[in-house]
Amino acid sequence: IHIDIYEKISLLYRGSLLVRLPFPFLPVERISVLLRIPYTNDNFQSCSDHNCMHGQCIRYFNDPDKTTFCRCHEGWSGRYCSVEHVCTCASGSLCIGILPNNQSICVCPIDKWGSRCLLDDHICQFNISCQHEGLCIPFDRYSLTNKQF
Question: Is 70 exceeded by the pLDDT of residue 121?
Answer without folding.
Answer: yes
